[in-house]
# Entry
Amino acid sequence: MTDMKIIVAIKQVPERDAPLRIDSAAQWIGESGLRYAMNEPDAYALEEALRLKESAGTEGEVVAVSAGPERVGTTLREALAKGADRAIHIVCGDLASRDALAVARLLAAAIQPENPSLVLTGLQSEDLGQGQTGVILAELLGLPHASLIVQAEMTATGLKVKRELEEGWFQFIELPAPAVLTIQSGGNKLRYATLMGIKRAKTKPVRTLAAADLGLASAPAVILDQVTLPQKQKSTQMLSGSAEEAAAALVEKLKFEAKVL
Amino acid sequence: MSGILVVQEARKDGNTRAFQETLAAGRVLAGYTGLEIEAAGVGDSNSNLFAEFIGPPPAAAHAIEHPLLSRYTSDGYVLAFEQLIRKLQPAYAVFPHSYQARDFVPRLATRFSQALISDVTAIESGPAFVRQLFQGKMNAVYRHPGGGPCFVSIQSGAFRPDGTSGGVTTIDHFTPEIDAAQIRTRPGDPFRASAQTVDLGSAQRIVGVGRGIKDAANLPLVQDLASALGAELAASRPICDNGWLPMERQVGSSGQTVAPKLYVAAGISGAIQHLVGIKGSQCIVAINKDRDAPIFEVADYGIAGDLFEVLPALTAAVKKAK
Ligand SMILES: Cc1cc2nc3c(=O)[nH]c(=O)nc-3n(C[C@H](O)[C@H](O)[C@H](O)COP(=O)(O)OP(=O)(O)OC[C@H]3O[C@@H](n4cnc5c(N)ncnc54)[C@H](O)[C@@H]3O)c2cc1C
Ligand SMILES: Nc1ncnc2c1ncn2[C@@H]1O[C@H](COP(=O)(O)O)[C@@H](O)[C@H]1O
# Structure
């Protein structure tokens, strides 16, 4: 068997608890002062990639790929610290104005020449939540795919994966490799970067590619026109005061108004 | 056709709720565009795919039939729908945002150099499509520039099927060309992983805990409230992903659906995949330190505060009221 090369697409997204503001043009959020982190399902995709490489026991390679501005470098370093062998940074300052097809085209252009044995993405990004970049990528690369995967193993003929279905159901799927898998959270326990890993990450190679060099820009397929604040569906009664006061008021309401106690 | 193609997912069992909702979304779109609605779905000749409609039936329905589609595969469905869409040339193709649609529609749209506008919650004049960003903390309005079919998927529960039940419509049978070698994946039978020992579905009161609890060691705080209320304990997905509570206590699209009299959400942000599991609750209470958390959009009562202070206070107040 030839050495396994696994590509993992990793997106950097605003930290979960980061306070968000709509920017002045109302076409994205204000990015100044925001802190960023690795998209959660992508952390699980990275974990799956590292496990597959380890269990193959050969000289395999895990390559992290991310498209985004300068700051994406820190998330790629984090992937290297956790065990990825090298990284590809597609430098792209206008990510928010590109649709899923355009982003997948960038990723495909960077991944194609690598000739990977397997490509993993997260199932969904926490900022855009489109849940489709990995599936598009499979089509662009001409590879079969399976989505919502919580476990994967290599077999003699390709891959056997466990797919999550709705309401606690699962199924196994067999497919040939190379393939694209979109990974759902929770399949494995995530590892932490060790001090040694963090130190070694500094010397691992990060190749940068300019988005403009990866093919002609095409007309957008869909346009994000405006970002707005959601409207309330219900009129929520907010109970204020100290914790004790709010708790006492709530119990009153639950007992006498909602009559659910 | 140049109309609106609304896609049905079930194979045999008549029209699903998801289809009726997708059809309702199609009607909103028809209202803004003046276009006609047709339906499509994979079935076989003796299936009652398009039996009954809530509201007026579509102008026509296309039953896609092929032995290689008897089991769902993304390759098979992409081929079938690609051929049907090339034939009909709809201006819009509307799908439910189901696990199945998420699996094949992005690939299908790519064949038309299009990108799916996924998980749409509202359609406005333009037409403009509203979907959530940042797990429900913001909304975004999307437009389609034209030049090819516009692919849209509809969030579960976002559109309400309405009107008197309509009867049948003309059914057109469509047989795509598919070769067995084009189907690359081999799906196995669905199975349930964990034994279901708790039935959250029939619980009268539930306390749901989310990532705001920070650590498994803090779980007794919610357990105490649950026992004071005589409630079952439930959780958002990350809590079960971390192994802090068993998966059978997970509520949401990939967990259980609940409909208690009282649902208390503590440290849960209110992502749609959690909300779909609790929307049948009679009364929802949210405790969250972030005043703007989406959970407050669906809560009847809210306390914007630190759960480490609020939970013990609430447990004490419940005990006192007994
Ligand atoms: C296909 C798919 C299926 C999914 N299925 C499910 C499912 O079945 N069920 C499910 O729950 N999720 C599901 N998810 C995940 C879902 O999208 C969310 O990621 C998840 O629900 C978030 O969980 P959470 O609210 O606990 O965590 P977070 O989103 O991290 O929210 C934590 C909340 O706690 C608050 N908080 C923090 N500290 C405190 C404090 N001290 N006091 C009070 N509040 C505090 C924060 O303000 C925040 O609002 C699914 C996702 C996908 C893509
Ligand atoms: N800019 C990006 N760079 C690298 N990977 C990405 C990028 N955008 C999306 N992805 C991958 O595609 C997955 C799905 O994203 P989305 O379709 O936006 O929900 C993510 O979990 C990532 O693995």
Observations:
- Chain A has a mean pLDDT of 94.
